[in-house]
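Q: Given only this backbone (162 positions), what sequence would you predict?
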């Protein structure tokens, strides 16, 4: 029996995460944009670790670098570090209540923001604007909704495939 998610759902979701990176937002809200692609990688690593891994995170990061025009490899590095941490703590994270998972995702997104700041400082860009530090908070607020949406879609696609 096929228990994994459909390819359309998994890769279509990652494609939507890439689109969320470049979707136009008002100037003030653009800096606080949540890192939806990282949240999607987290979800699929928790729910389908046999289909998503470090390689998927790396390729998604390279695609994100190309789409957003950032330093090539920057987001790939950030997503691989995030994926490694999720894989490392998956047995614990998977069985946390949803609010504790949201806190863990917040910590992961905050870590990602710290890595982004380190890369920016190393490249000579200085400090990130303060509003970019709101992004992990927005991700924290969105995680339960994203999780429930993806879980519902994944279970519905499994029922259709059975």
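A: Predicted residues:
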């Amino acid at each position: 029996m096929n228990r994994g998610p459909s390819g359309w759902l998994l890769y279509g979701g990652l494609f939507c995460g890439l689109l969320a990176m470049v979707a136009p937002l008002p100037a003030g809200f653009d800096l606080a944009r949540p890192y939806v692609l990282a949240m999607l990688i987290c979800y699929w690593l928790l729910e389908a670790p046999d289909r998503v891994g470090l390689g998927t995170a790396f390729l998604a990061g390279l695609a994100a670098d190309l789409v957003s025009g950032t330093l090539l490899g920057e987001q790939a590095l950030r997503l691989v570090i995030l994926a490694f941490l999720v894989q490392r703590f998956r047995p614990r994270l998977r069985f946390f209540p949803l609010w504790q998972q949201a806190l863990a995702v917040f910590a992961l997104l905050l870590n990602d923001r710290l890595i982004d700041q380190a890369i920016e400082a190393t490249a000579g860009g200085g400090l990130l604007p303060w509003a970019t530090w709101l992004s992990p908070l927005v991700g924290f607020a969105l995680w339960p909704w994203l999780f429930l949406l993806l879980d519902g879609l994944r279970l519905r696609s499994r029922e259709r495939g059975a």
